[in-house]
Each structure stands twice: as structure tokens, then as C-alpha cells.
């Protein structure tokens, strides 16, 4: 809003940079521009102030689809002033020269005009499509139609108003119908959630089964390895026993062979000794064979004496000595 200052009979106006000031006097435009500041006489001046920034207009209206279902549309239309002087001629934007406020409500009038135009365009779109199609693709279709229709409207063009953008924030049926339409989706979502829960449970059961099966397989494999280990130990023990028996047999055979060889050697030695002894005795016997009896007797006595124990005292009686002396005398006589 413009600031107006009083100085005696004259007044001073200072406009904002976002507003367009049109100063007219006697029906003729004296000055026009953005953010003007000037002196004027209130008795002969008429000043209009128009906004030059982008404005947003929220719109809410109801319509009916082709299948006679009520639909609520919420939209936002962004507009701005393109030709302020032309708009000032069509809509009253004059301000009170004492405070700077608008005398009328020009923005409400302009909003009403844009709302009616948007409602007419929207009704055309809603009336040509069933509710299901509107709920599916109606937002984009409605936005495109409102943008095209408002931007190309001849009345807005003559007024110097440009449509910047159109947005559809909601397109909804009646509450009961909306709940009815949401029911299949909710049921589908619930079914999907139930299916996901069932799949998770099935997956958990499958994982538990796989874990149990894996544990069972591990136990079976462990038991199999233990069985193989026991069998291998038994085989090793049998093999060790066989090797020990073979070793003992070989040692016994070697010992037997050693003993047999020793016995054979000893037997051979005994045979040789006995043979030598026999041969010596045979030679000795052959020597004794031609000796006289008394010599043999003497030799026998000597031999006997060699085998007798030590004799400390020997007693020879006459009875023992007489026959021997007689024999010696008898042997000496023939030789003489």
C-alpha cells in the first residue's frame, strides 16, 4: 500500500517497487510507472495502485462426472498483471487519497472472475469423463485444460492479466463414495501385507527347516566320519597286530634258525671231539694191545691215580705188595 503524506494543501505519495501507480487528472493519465513517488493535489487527482507481483488464488468448487457423481476440485491459480493501465480501466484500483487504501475490493472482483472462468472450464472436463477415469487421470487432464483455457481467455487478455500457472491440489469424490472406492485398495494392501507376512513366516519356517536339515546332515556326516575313524582305527590295530605277529614270527624263526645253527655247530663240534677222542682212544688201545699184563696193570694204576682225589697218607700192606714183587721177580728171571 502506498504511503501518502500531507503538506498543507499538497500531498506526497510514495509507492512500493512491487506496485504500479497510475496518476490521472481530468480523465487523462499524468504519470504511470512502478514504484513512483510524486506530489499531487488531492482535489484534482485520481490515483490507482495495482500489484505487479505474482498472486496465488485458491479455488474450491464442486462438479459432477459423466456418471453423475459429485466431485470436489481444489486448485491454485497463479496470475499477474501484464498491462496495468488496461486493468485499471476495467477494474477499480483507485485508492483513498487520505490513507492510501483501495476504495473498493478490486482483487476480490478479479478473483471472482478467474474463479468463474476456471469453474466453467473444469465443469466441461468433469462432465465428459466417468468418475473412475477422473480419479485416475483427471488431475493432469484438468490442470492442462485450465491452463490452456485461462491463458487463452479473451476477457483476461483484454484486461491485461496473465495466467502464470495452474495447480490441482485435490480431486475427490464424496466421502462415502471415497471410502467405498478405498475399500478394494485397502483390502488389496491388507492382502499384500498378509501375503508378505505369510511369505516371511514361510521363509522363516523354510530357514528353520534348512537349519535343522543342515544340522542333521552335519550330525550324519560327523557320525559317518566317526564310523570311518573307528573302522580305520580297527584296521590300523589289525594291521599293527598283523605286523607285530609277523615281526614276532620272523624273530621266532630267526631265533629258531639261530638255535638250530648253534645246535648244529655244537653237534658238529661234539661229533668232531668225540671222533677225535674215539680216534685217540683207538690209537691208545692199539698201543696197549701188545703190552704185557703187568704193564697194563701199572698204566691202569697210574691212570687211576690221576683221577683219584688227593691222598695224604697211603698205607701199603704186605699182602698188597708181595704179589707185585713176585710178579716182578718172575719177569726178571726169564730175561736173565
Tell me briefly what this model is:
The protein has helices at 84-90, 106-127, 131-151, 154-159, 175-288, 293-307, 318-335, and strands spanning 3-7, 10-14, 19-25, 28-34, 37-40, 45-51, 55-64, 70-81, 161-173. It has 336 residues and is of the alpha+beta class.
What can you see in these coordinates?
- This protein has 336 residues and is α+β, with helices and mostly antiparallel strands.
- Among the domains are: 3-173, Tetrahydropterin Synthase, Chain A (2-Layer Sandwich); 185-238.
- It has 7 helices and 9 strands; from the N terminus they run ββββββββααααβααα.
- The strands form 3 sheets. The protein has a 3-stranded antiparallel sheet, with no helix packed on it. It has a 3-stranded antiparallel sheet with strand order 4-3-6, with helices on one face. It has a 3-stranded antiparallel sheet with strand order 7-8-9.
- Strand 7 and strand 8 form a beta hairpin.
- Helix 2 crosses helix 3 (131-151).
- It starts with a strand and ends with a helix.
List keywords for this structure.
336 residues, 60% helix, three-stranded antiparallel β-sheet, 21% strand, single chain, alpha+beta
Helix content: 55-70%
CATH class of the domain at 3-173: Alpha Beta
Radius of gyration, in Å, reads: 75 Å
Q: How many H/I helical runs?
A: 7
Shape: rod-shaped
Helix/strand layout:
Blueprint: E1 3-7, E2 10-14, E3 19-25, E4 28-34, E5 37-40, E6 45-51, E7 55-64, E8 70-81, H1 84-90, H2 106-127, H3 131-151, H4 154-159, E9 161-173, H5 175-288, H6 293-307, H7 318-335
Antiparallel strand pairs: 1-2, 2-5, 3-4, 3-6, 7-8, 8-9
Helix pairs in contact: 2-3
Amino acid at each position: 500500500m502506498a504511503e501518502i503524506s500531507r503538506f498543507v494543501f499538497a500531498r506526497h505519495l510514495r509507492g512500493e517497487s512491487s506496485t504500479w501507480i497510475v496518476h490521472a487528472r481530468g480523465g487523462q493519465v499524468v504519470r504511470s510507472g512502478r514504484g513512483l513517488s510524486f506530489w499531487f493535489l488531492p482535489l484534482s487527482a485520481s490515483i490507482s495502485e495495482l500489484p505487479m507481483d505474482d498472486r496465488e488464488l485458491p479455488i474450491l468448487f464442486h462438479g459432477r462426472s459423466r456418471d453423475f457423481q459429485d466431485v470436489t476440485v481444489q486448485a491454485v491459480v497463479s496470475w499477474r498483471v501484464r498491462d496495468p493501465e488496461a486493468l485499471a480501466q476495467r477494474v477499480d484500483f483507485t485508492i483513498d487519497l487520505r490513507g492510501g487504501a483501495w476504495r473498493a475490493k478490486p482483487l476480490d472482483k478479479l478473483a471472482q472472475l478467474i474463479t468463474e472462468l476456471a469453474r466453467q472450464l473444469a465443469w466441461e472436463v468433469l462432465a465428459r469423463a466417468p468418475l473412475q477415469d477422473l480419479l485416475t487421470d483427471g488431475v493432469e487432464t484438468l490442470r492442462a485444460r485450465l491452463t490452456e483455457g485461462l491463458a487463452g481467455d479473451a476477457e483476461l487478455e483484454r484486461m491485461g492479466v496473465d495466467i502464470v500457472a495452474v495447480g490441482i491440489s485435490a480431486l475427490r469424490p464424496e466421502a462415502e463414495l471415497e471410502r467405498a472406492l478405498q475399500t478394494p485398495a485397502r483390502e488389496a494392501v491388507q492382502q499384500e501385507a498378509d501375503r508378505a507376512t505369510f511369505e516371511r513366516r514361510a521363509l522363516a519356517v523354510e530357514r528353520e527347516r534348512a537349519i535343522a536339515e543342515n544340522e542333521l546332515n552335519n550330525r550324519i556326516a560327523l557320525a559317518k566320519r566317526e564310523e570311518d575313524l573307528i573302522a580305520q582305527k580297527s584296521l590300523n590295530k589289525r594291521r599293527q597286530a598283523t605286523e607285530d605277529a609277523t615281526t614276532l614270527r620272523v624273530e621266532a624263526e630267526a631265533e629258531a634258525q639261530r638255535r638250530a645253527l648253534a645246535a648244529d655247530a655244537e653237534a658238529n663240534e661234539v661229533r668232531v671231539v668225540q671222533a677225535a677222542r674215539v680216534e685217540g682212544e683207538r690209537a691208545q688201545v692199539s698201543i696197549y694191545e701188545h703190552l704185557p699184563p703187568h704193564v697194563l696193570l701199572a698204566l691202569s694204576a697210574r691212570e687211576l691215580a690221576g683221577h683219584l682225589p688227593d691222598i695224604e697218607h697211603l698205607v701199603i700192606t704186605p699182602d698188597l705188595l708181595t704179589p707185585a714183587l713176585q710178579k716182578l721177580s718172575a719177569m726178571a728171571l726169564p730175561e736173565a
